[in-house]
Design a protein that fits this description.
alpha/beta; eight-stranded parallel beta barrel; 14 helices; 17% strand
Length: 413
Protein backbone atom coordinates (compact mmCIF):
# COMPACT_ATOMS: atom_id res chain seq x y z
CA UNK A 1 0.00 0.00 0.00
CA UNK A 2 1.75 3.12 -1.26
CA UNK A 3 2.17 6.10 1.07
CA UNK A 4 2.64 9.74 0.16
CA UNK A 5 3.55 12.61 2.48
CA UNK A 6 2.14 16.12 2.08
CA UNK A 7 4.77 18.84 1.70
CA UNK A 8 4.93 22.59 1.05
CA UNK A 9 7.64 24.05 -1.20
CA UNK A 10 8.90 26.20 1.69
CA UNK A 11 9.61 23.03 3.66
CA UNK A 12 12.18 22.08 1.03
CA UNK A 13 13.57 25.19 -0.63
CA UNK A 14 16.58 26.54 1.24
CA UNK A 15 17.00 23.34 3.28
CA UNK A 16 19.59 21.07 1.62
CA UNK A 17 18.67 18.16 3.89
CA UNK A 18 14.88 18.30 3.42
CA UNK A 19 14.40 16.08 0.37
CA UNK A 20 16.54 13.22 1.69
CA UNK A 21 14.93 13.56 5.11
CA UNK A 22 11.45 13.16 3.62
CA UNK A 23 12.56 10.25 1.45
CA UNK A 24 14.08 8.69 4.55
CA UNK A 25 10.66 8.33 6.10
CA UNK A 26 10.07 5.36 3.80
CA UNK A 27 7.55 6.96 1.45
CA UNK A 28 8.04 6.68 -2.32
CA UNK A 29 5.89 9.73 -3.11
CA UNK A 30 5.21 13.30 -2.00
CA UNK A 31 2.11 15.41 -2.58
CA UNK A 32 3.57 18.89 -3.09
CA UNK A 33 1.45 22.04 -2.92
CA UNK A 34 1.32 23.96 -6.21
CA UNK A 35 -1.75 26.12 -5.45
CA UNK A 36 -2.63 26.78 -1.83
CA UNK A 37 -4.74 28.96 0.45
CA UNK A 38 -3.48 31.48 3.01
CA UNK A 39 -1.84 29.89 6.02
CA UNK A 40 0.69 30.29 8.81
CA UNK A 41 2.95 27.29 9.10
CA UNK A 42 5.77 26.01 11.27
CA UNK A 43 8.97 24.82 9.64
CA UNK A 44 10.61 23.18 12.67
CA UNK A 45 13.83 22.03 10.96
CA UNK A 46 14.47 24.70 8.34
CA UNK A 47 17.93 26.33 8.65
CA UNK A 48 16.65 29.81 7.69
CA UNK A 49 13.20 30.19 9.29
CA UNK A 50 10.72 28.67 11.72
CA UNK A 51 7.48 30.37 10.64
CA UNK A 52 6.14 30.91 7.14
CA UNK A 53 3.18 33.25 6.67
CA UNK A 54 1.42 32.82 3.35
CA UNK A 55 -0.63 36.01 3.31
CA UNK A 56 -3.11 34.99 0.66
CA UNK A 57 -4.13 32.13 -1.60
CA UNK A 58 -1.61 31.81 -4.41
CA UNK A 59 -0.08 29.60 -7.04
CA UNK A 60 3.43 28.58 -6.08
CA UNK A 61 4.81 28.85 -9.61
CA UNK A 62 4.65 31.63 -12.26
CA UNK A 63 1.07 31.79 -13.65
CA UNK A 64 0.81 31.09 -17.39
CA UNK A 65 -0.28 33.15 -20.37
CA UNK A 66 -3.83 31.80 -20.28
CA UNK A 67 -4.70 34.39 -17.62
CA UNK A 68 -3.80 37.46 -19.66
CA UNK A 69 -6.70 39.90 -19.74
CA UNK A 70 -8.92 37.87 -17.41
CA UNK A 71 -10.55 39.40 -14.36
CA UNK A 72 -10.42 36.25 -12.25
CA UNK A 73 -6.90 34.88 -12.24
CA UNK A 74 -4.55 33.26 -9.73
CA UNK A 75 -2.31 35.38 -7.57
CA UNK A 76 1.44 34.91 -7.48
CA UNK A 77 2.90 34.17 -4.07
CA UNK A 78 4.82 36.77 -2.10
CA UNK A 79 8.18 36.34 -0.44
CA UNK A 80 7.09 33.06 1.16
CA UNK A 81 7.33 31.29 -2.23
CA UNK A 82 9.12 33.42 -4.79
CA UNK A 83 9.52 32.48 -8.44
CA UNK A 84 8.89 28.86 -9.30
CA UNK A 85 8.96 27.65 -5.69
CA UNK A 86 7.01 24.54 -6.63
CA UNK A 87 9.41 23.66 -9.45
CA UNK A 88 12.48 24.13 -7.27
CA UNK A 89 11.09 21.90 -4.53
CA UNK A 90 9.85 19.31 -7.03
CA UNK A 91 13.31 19.03 -8.58
CA UNK A 92 14.95 18.48 -5.20
CA UNK A 93 12.37 15.88 -4.16
CA UNK A 94 12.64 14.02 -7.46
CA UNK A 95 16.41 14.08 -7.05
CA UNK A 96 15.97 12.21 -3.78
CA UNK A 97 14.12 9.46 -5.65
CA UNK A 98 10.57 10.55 -4.83
CA UNK A 99 7.62 10.61 -7.20
CA UNK A 100 6.04 14.07 -7.09
CA UNK A 101 2.29 14.68 -7.34
CA UNK A 102 0.72 18.14 -7.19
CA UNK A 103 -1.61 19.32 -4.43
CA UNK A 104 -4.10 21.88 -5.73
CA UNK A 105 -6.53 23.88 -3.56
CA UNK A 106 -9.37 25.29 -5.66
CA UNK A 107 -12.65 26.74 -4.27
CA UNK A 108 -11.07 28.29 -1.18
CA UNK A 109 -9.59 31.73 -1.72
CA UNK A 110 -10.11 34.64 0.67
CA UNK A 111 -8.19 37.19 -1.41
CA UNK A 112 -10.27 36.45 -4.49
CA UNK A 113 -13.41 36.86 -2.40
CA UNK A 114 -12.27 40.11 -0.84
CA UNK A 115 -11.30 41.70 -4.15
CA UNK A 116 -14.36 40.37 -6.00
CA UNK A 117 -17.28 40.15 -3.54
CA UNK A 118 -19.56 39.17 -6.41
CA UNK A 119 -17.88 35.73 -6.39
CA UNK A 120 -18.81 34.99 -2.76
CA UNK A 121 -21.23 32.46 -1.38
CA UNK A 122 -24.08 34.53 0.15
CA UNK A 123 -26.11 32.97 2.94
CA UNK A 124 -29.84 33.31 3.65
CA UNK A 125 -29.19 36.38 5.82
CA UNK A 126 -27.25 38.17 3.09
CA UNK A 127 -23.82 37.60 4.70
CA UNK A 128 -20.98 37.01 2.27
CA UNK A 129 -18.31 34.33 2.72
CA UNK A 130 -15.17 35.77 1.11
CA UNK A 131 -13.24 32.53 1.62
CA UNK A 132 -15.84 30.56 -0.40
CA UNK A 133 -16.26 31.31 -4.13
CA UNK A 134 -19.66 30.18 -5.35
CA UNK A 135 -19.09 27.30 -7.74
CA UNK A 136 -22.38 27.96 -9.57
CA UNK A 137 -21.15 31.19 -11.15
CA UNK A 138 -19.96 30.71 -14.75
CA UNK A 139 -16.87 32.94 -14.45
CA UNK A 140 -15.84 31.26 -11.21
CA UNK A 141 -16.29 27.81 -12.73
CA UNK A 142 -14.16 28.77 -15.74
CA UNK A 143 -11.45 30.09 -13.41
CA UNK A 144 -11.46 26.93 -11.29
CA UNK A 145 -11.33 24.59 -14.26
CA UNK A 146 -8.38 26.42 -15.82
CA UNK A 147 -6.61 26.68 -12.47
CA UNK A 148 -7.05 22.94 -11.93
CA UNK A 149 -5.46 22.15 -15.29
CA UNK A 150 -2.52 24.53 -14.90
CA UNK A 151 -1.68 23.90 -11.24
CA UNK A 152 -2.13 20.13 -11.50
CA UNK A 153 0.01 19.50 -14.56
CA UNK A 154 3.37 20.90 -13.53
CA UNK A 155 6.61 19.72 -15.17
CA UNK A 156 7.58 16.26 -13.96
CA UNK A 157 4.43 15.67 -11.90
CA UNK A 158 3.01 12.16 -12.16
CA UNK A 159 -0.40 12.95 -10.75
CA UNK A 160 -2.48 15.42 -8.79
CA UNK A 161 -4.77 15.70 -5.80
CA UNK A 162 -7.54 18.27 -6.15
CA UNK A 163 -8.78 19.74 -2.88
CA UNK A 164 -11.89 21.92 -2.37
CA UNK A 165 -13.35 20.94 -5.75
CA UNK A 166 -16.92 21.49 -4.65
CA UNK A 167 -18.98 23.69 -2.36
CA UNK A 168 -17.15 25.54 0.41
CA UNK A 169 -19.56 26.74 3.09
CA UNK A 170 -19.57 28.25 6.55
CA UNK A 171 -17.06 25.94 8.21
CA UNK A 172 -13.66 27.55 7.82
CA UNK A 173 -10.98 28.40 10.35
CA UNK A 174 -10.72 32.14 9.81
CA UNK A 175 -8.37 34.49 11.68
CA UNK A 176 -9.30 34.46 15.39
CA UNK A 177 -12.32 32.35 14.50
CA UNK A 178 -15.27 32.76 16.85
CA UNK A 179 -18.20 30.91 15.29
CA UNK A 180 -18.17 27.89 17.60
CA UNK A 181 -20.42 29.35 20.29
CA UNK A 182 -23.50 27.64 18.87
CA UNK A 183 -23.25 24.00 17.88
CA UNK A 184 -24.58 23.99 14.33
CA UNK A 185 -24.17 20.29 13.60
CA UNK A 186 -24.57 18.86 10.13
CA UNK A 187 -27.98 20.40 9.60
CA UNK A 188 -27.05 23.88 10.74
CA UNK A 189 -23.88 23.83 8.66
CA UNK A 190 -25.87 22.89 5.57
CA UNK A 191 -28.47 25.59 6.06
CA UNK A 192 -25.81 28.24 6.77
CA UNK A 193 -23.91 27.14 3.65
CA UNK A 194 -26.80 27.45 1.19
CA UNK A 195 -25.94 30.17 -1.30
CA UNK A 196 -28.27 32.93 -2.48
CA UNK A 197 -26.09 34.74 -5.00
CA UNK A 198 -27.66 35.61 -8.34
CA UNK A 199 -26.46 32.38 -9.98
CA UNK A 200 -27.88 30.22 -7.20
CA UNK A 201 -31.18 32.13 -7.23
CA UNK A 202 -31.51 31.20 -10.90
CA UNK A 203 -30.58 27.64 -10.04
CA UNK A 204 -33.30 27.40 -7.41
CA UNK A 205 -35.78 28.73 -9.96
CA UNK A 206 -34.83 25.77 -12.13
CA UNK A 207 -35.92 23.55 -9.22
CA UNK A 208 -39.23 25.46 -9.15
CA UNK A 209 -38.26 27.30 -5.97
CA UNK A 210 -38.72 30.99 -5.25
CA UNK A 211 -35.35 32.08 -3.88
CA UNK A 212 -36.80 34.81 -1.68
CA UNK A 213 -39.30 32.44 -0.09
CA UNK A 214 -36.58 29.83 0.31
CA UNK A 215 -34.35 32.31 2.17
CA UNK A 216 -37.21 33.10 4.53
CA UNK A 217 -37.74 29.38 5.11
CA UNK A 218 -34.04 28.81 5.81
CA UNK A 219 -33.96 31.64 8.37
CA UNK A 220 -37.04 30.22 10.05
CA UNK A 221 -35.52 26.73 10.08
CA UNK A 222 -32.42 28.07 11.79
CA UNK A 223 -34.28 29.78 14.64
CA UNK A 224 -34.45 26.60 16.78
CA UNK A 225 -30.73 26.07 16.16
CA UNK A 226 -29.88 29.54 17.49
CA UNK A 227 -31.90 28.68 20.59
CA UNK A 228 -29.82 25.55 21.13
CA UNK A 229 -31.96 22.82 19.57
CA UNK A 230 -29.99 19.71 18.48
CA UNK A 231 -28.99 19.86 14.82
CA UNK A 232 -26.57 16.97 14.46
CA UNK A 233 -28.92 14.35 13.04
CA UNK A 234 -27.64 14.60 9.50
CA UNK A 235 -29.92 14.89 6.50
CA UNK A 236 -33.04 13.83 8.38
CA UNK A 237 -32.61 16.89 10.61
CA UNK A 238 -32.25 19.16 7.56
CA UNK A 239 -35.52 17.75 6.25
CA UNK A 240 -37.17 18.21 9.64
CA UNK A 241 -36.04 21.83 9.95
CA UNK A 242 -36.57 22.95 6.36
CA UNK A 243 -39.17 20.50 5.12
CA UNK A 244 -38.50 17.52 2.90
CA UNK A 245 -39.56 19.13 -0.39
CA UNK A 246 -37.47 22.26 0.02
CA UNK A 247 -34.48 20.34 1.35
CA UNK A 248 -34.54 17.90 -1.57
CA UNK A 249 -34.76 20.68 -4.15
CA UNK A 250 -31.81 22.62 -2.71
CA UNK A 251 -29.74 19.48 -2.59
CA UNK A 252 -30.55 18.62 -6.20
CA UNK A 253 -29.30 22.01 -7.37
CA UNK A 254 -26.12 21.92 -5.32
CA UNK A 255 -25.16 18.34 -6.16
CA UNK A 256 -25.65 18.83 -9.88
CA UNK A 257 -23.56 22.00 -9.73
CA UNK A 258 -20.73 20.23 -7.93
CA UNK A 259 -20.85 17.14 -10.16
CA UNK A 260 -20.60 19.09 -13.39
CA UNK A 261 -17.72 21.21 -12.05
CA UNK A 262 -15.83 18.10 -10.96
CA UNK A 263 -16.35 16.53 -14.37
CA UNK A 264 -15.14 19.65 -16.16
CA UNK A 265 -12.06 20.07 -13.96
CA UNK A 266 -10.96 16.45 -14.25
CA UNK A 267 -11.50 16.55 -18.02
CA UNK A 268 -9.37 19.70 -18.27
CA UNK A 269 -6.58 18.18 -16.19
CA UNK A 270 -6.52 15.04 -18.33
CA UNK A 271 -6.46 17.07 -21.53
CA UNK A 272 -3.36 18.90 -20.29
CA UNK A 273 -1.61 15.89 -18.74
CA UNK A 274 0.60 13.16 -20.20
CA UNK A 275 -0.62 9.57 -20.42
CA UNK A 276 -0.77 7.79 -17.08
CA UNK A 277 -1.27 10.97 -15.07
CA UNK A 278 -3.26 10.16 -11.91
CA UNK A 279 -6.15 12.41 -10.86
CA UNK A 280 -7.52 12.12 -7.31
CA UNK A 281 -10.03 14.24 -5.40
CA UNK A 282 -10.09 14.99 -1.69
CA UNK A 283 -13.59 13.79 -0.97
CA UNK A 284 -16.32 13.12 1.59
CA UNK A 285 -18.89 10.42 0.68
CA UNK A 286 -21.78 12.51 2.11
CA UNK A 287 -22.73 14.49 -0.96
CA UNK A 288 -24.28 17.49 0.83
CA UNK A 289 -21.19 18.17 2.95
CA UNK A 290 -19.03 21.23 2.23
CA UNK A 291 -15.35 21.95 2.66
CA UNK A 292 -11.85 20.96 1.67
CA UNK A 293 -13.03 17.36 1.28
CA UNK A 294 -15.79 17.99 -1.21
CA UNK A 295 -19.06 16.15 -0.71
CA UNK A 296 -19.49 13.69 -3.58
CA UNK A 297 -21.59 10.77 -4.72
CA UNK A 298 -19.11 7.86 -4.47
CA UNK A 299 -20.34 6.04 -7.57
CA UNK A 300 -20.24 9.17 -9.69
CA UNK A 301 -16.84 10.48 -8.61
CA UNK A 302 -15.16 7.11 -9.06
CA UNK A 303 -16.48 7.08 -12.62
CA UNK A 304 -14.86 10.48 -13.22
CA UNK A 305 -11.55 10.48 -11.33
CA UNK A 306 -8.93 7.79 -10.70
CA UNK A 307 -9.77 7.77 -7.02
CA UNK A 308 -10.20 9.76 -3.85
CA UNK A 309 -8.30 10.92 -0.78
CA UNK A 310 -10.50 10.41 2.27
CA UNK A 311 -10.07 11.95 5.77
CA UNK A 312 -9.45 9.08 8.19
CA UNK A 313 -7.89 10.68 11.28
CA UNK A 314 -9.96 9.44 14.20
CA UNK A 315 -11.55 6.65 12.17
CA UNK A 316 -11.72 5.25 8.67
CA UNK A 317 -15.47 4.73 8.29
CA UNK A 318 -15.73 7.25 5.43
CA UNK A 319 -13.81 4.79 3.24
CA UNK A 320 -16.65 2.28 3.22
CA UNK A 321 -19.05 4.00 0.76
CA UNK A 322 -16.20 4.31 -1.75
CA UNK A 323 -14.97 0.75 -1.22
CA UNK A 324 -18.51 -0.57 -1.76
CA UNK A 325 -18.38 0.63 -5.37
CA UNK A 326 -15.90 -2.14 -6.19
CA UNK A 327 -14.31 -0.16 -9.01
CA UNK A 328 -10.65 -0.83 -8.26
CA UNK A 329 -10.06 2.92 -7.94
CA UNK A 330 -7.42 4.44 -5.68
CA UNK A 331 -8.75 4.89 -2.15
CA UNK A 332 -6.18 6.84 -0.16
CA UNK A 333 -6.66 7.08 3.60
CA UNK A 334 -5.53 10.51 4.82
CA UNK A 335 -4.02 10.25 8.31
CA UNK A 336 -2.71 13.19 10.32
CA UNK A 337 0.69 12.38 11.83
CA UNK A 338 1.28 15.72 13.57
CA UNK A 339 0.60 15.23 17.29
CA UNK A 340 -0.02 18.93 17.92
CA UNK A 341 -2.75 18.97 15.26
CA UNK A 342 -4.72 16.04 16.63
CA UNK A 343 -2.76 13.35 14.82
CA UNK A 344 -1.61 10.04 16.21
CA UNK A 345 1.72 9.00 14.72
CA UNK A 346 2.10 6.43 17.48
CA UNK A 347 -0.84 4.41 16.12
CA UNK A 348 0.01 4.85 12.44
CA UNK A 349 0.66 1.17 11.80
CA UNK A 350 -2.60 0.13 13.44
CA UNK A 351 -4.53 2.93 11.72
CA UNK A 352 -3.08 1.93 8.35
CA UNK A 353 -4.07 -1.70 8.85
CA UNK A 354 -7.57 -0.65 9.87
CA UNK A 355 -7.90 1.57 6.80
CA UNK A 356 -6.70 -1.27 4.57
CA UNK A 357 -9.31 -3.58 6.06
CA UNK A 358 -11.97 -1.03 5.05
CA UNK A 359 -10.72 -0.78 1.48
CA UNK A 360 -7.86 1.73 1.49
CA UNK A 361 -5.30 1.05 -1.22
CA UNK A 362 -2.91 3.91 -0.36
CA UNK A 363 -1.99 6.19 2.55
CA UNK A 364 -1.57 9.96 2.74
CA UNK A 365 0.42 11.36 5.66
CA UNK A 366 -0.32 14.89 6.78
CA UNK A 367 2.20 16.53 7.04
CA UNK A 368 5.95 15.91 6.62
CA UNK A 369 6.86 19.58 6.93
CA UNK A 370 4.73 20.41 9.98
CA UNK A 371 5.59 17.39 12.13
CA UNK A 372 8.14 17.52 14.93
CA UNK A 373 11.32 15.46 14.91
CA UNK A 374 9.71 13.06 17.37
CA UNK A 375 6.62 12.64 15.19
CA UNK A 376 8.74 11.99 12.08
CA UNK A 377 10.83 9.41 13.90
CA UNK A 378 7.65 7.65 15.01
CA UNK A 379 6.31 7.70 11.45
CA UNK A 380 9.53 6.23 10.10
CA UNK A 381 9.43 3.44 12.67
CA UNK A 382 5.74 2.75 11.97
CA UNK A 383 6.24 2.46 8.22
CA UNK A 384 9.18 0.14 8.74
CA UNK A 385 7.16 -1.91 11.21
CA UNK A 386 4.38 -2.34 8.70
CA UNK A 387 6.91 -4.36 6.71
CA UNK A 388 6.01 -2.65 3.48
CA UNK A 389 8.28 0.40 3.53
CA UNK A 390 11.63 -0.25 5.19
CA UNK A 391 13.63 2.85 6.06
CA UNK A 392 16.09 4.05 3.40
CA UNK A 393 19.53 2.63 3.92
CA UNK A 394 21.95 4.87 5.72
CA UNK A 395 19.58 7.82 6.19
CA UNK A 396 18.08 9.18 9.37
CA UNK A 397 14.62 10.54 8.49
CA UNK A 398 14.64 13.16 11.19
CA UNK A 399 18.07 14.70 11.10
CA UNK A 400 19.45 13.51 7.75
CA UNK A 401 22.39 11.83 9.54
CA UNK A 402 23.93 8.64 8.25
CA UNK A 403 23.35 5.62 10.40
CA UNK A 404 23.74 1.83 10.16
CA UNK A 405 20.78 0.09 8.59
CA UNK A 406 20.01 -3.52 7.83
CA UNK A 407 17.52 -2.57 5.12
CA UNK A 408 18.09 -1.20 1.66
CA UNK A 409 14.63 -1.39 0.12
CA UNK A 410 12.58 1.68 -0.68
CA UNK A 411 9.36 -0.20 -1.42
CA UNK A 412 6.12 1.60 -0.60
CA UNK A 413 3.90 1.28 2.42
Amino acid sequence: MKASAFVYPWDVNGDPAAAERIAGLGVPQVTLASAYHSTRALTPRHPRHRIVTAEHAAVLYPPGKRWKGRTLRPYAAGDWALGDAYGEAAEALAGAGLDVHTWVVLAHNSRLGEEFPCTNVVNAYGDRYPWAPCIAQPTTRAYLVDLAAEAAVRPGARGTELESLGWYGLAHLHAHDKIGGTGLGDAGQYLMSLCFCSACRKGYAGQELDAGALAVAVRAALEPVWRGAPSDGGWTTVEKLLGSELATATRAWREETARTLQEAAVTAVRAAAPDGFQVLLHADPVAYHCGANAGVDPAHILSVADGVVVPCTGGAALLTPFAQQGTGAVLAANLTVVSGMGGSPGTLAEDADRAASLGATELRLYHAGLASDADLATVQEALARLGRAPARSGTDAVAGRTRPSSTSSTSSV
